[in-house]
Amino acid sequence: MTKTPDEPQDLAAPAQTLASETTLTEPLVLEPVPIPVPTYVFTPNNSDSANSGASASPAVRKAIIAGVLSGLFAGALGFSSATLVGNTPAPSISLPAASGELSSRADDSIAGIAQAVLPVVVSIEVSSGQRAGTGSGFVIRSTALESFILTNNHVVSGAGDAPDITVTFQDQSRVSAEIVGTDASYDLAVLRVDRGNLPVAALGNSDNVVVGDATIAIGSPLGLSGTVTSGIVSAINRPVTAGDAGDISFISAIQTDAAINPGNSGGPLVNSRGEVIGINSAIATTGSSVSGQSGSIGLGFSIPINQAKRVATDLITTGKSSYPVIGVQLDTTYAGVGAKIESIIPDSPASITALKAGDVITQIDGVIIGSATELVVRIRAKSPGDLVTLTLLDETEIEIILGSDQS
User: Fold this and answer.
1) pLDDT at 163
2) What is the value of pTM for the model shown?
3) φ and ψ at 197, to 5 degrees?
């Protein structure tokens, strides 16, 4: 189960029992340990000592008295010398001061990448009435007068209708923002601020991402702005759904073990060149913590930037976006492998093909389909107008040009 790492949404699955408790069937009795009585291994023989002292000659007694007096005199002299030395100021010691210059850090190090990317990342606060939430975002376009920020739809919609939105930059300056457009089907939104000439994020190519690539996540988990975490790409094309029944998102996600927590949503996932390859959107959890928030267990999911770039362009240009469709209703009760067609939508791309109700789609472009949800995720990863090949259970192949629908 996945959840979007922000309040007020809570999509976490019920907590799983990770370990069982151990019960002691019989009480454990500890016997007291007796304290040992000290035992001396040497006891002086007093009678021998007394006899020895009594039989000492006068010459020996004079030598002993002389030694005692000499020791007393030497002790007094040593005490006086120590007192004089203790009252004398110690010589000063001078240690060389550090130069003050920072050690060099390569541009492709985590520190170097973080310093380059941090200026384009923002914190987002959303409030409306009694509800509020926080998230992250990054600048994707800037002119002399205005700038546009990409984030998650669930960040800006979490506080309800007509929310007040405040964007905080890395220099802690704050500015109000307005929603340009949202797309719940991809969990994306674009904000506009009246501030121009801002640094803009460099966008990478998410189609070139492979498992094992280095990743860096930047955002504001739990309101801690400018937080940087690192990891690797754990998996690609991971089918992920997030949201509720009325506002669900389908993501063919990049999976990463870089720590992503509530408040990271909408922030960038970047590669080892500092290029954005994904938008951090969801996390998998084993349950909720005491505070009601669920934290990272190393299973974070990001929307690929190639997918987000098309949607963001549509939102900036028209305020709306579209998503690809084949024009069928799927049977969600089907328990077999693949996606079963329940009906064909009239005047849709599917209506002019050989597809019919009852067909089971098992592959799309050679990728095996395990369920109806997985088919939707794979189609949403395409663009309207793309030509795809569907493989049916009987191994029939059908080509179809994807249509579009408005978000």
Assistant:
1) 83
2) 0.72
3) 55, 40
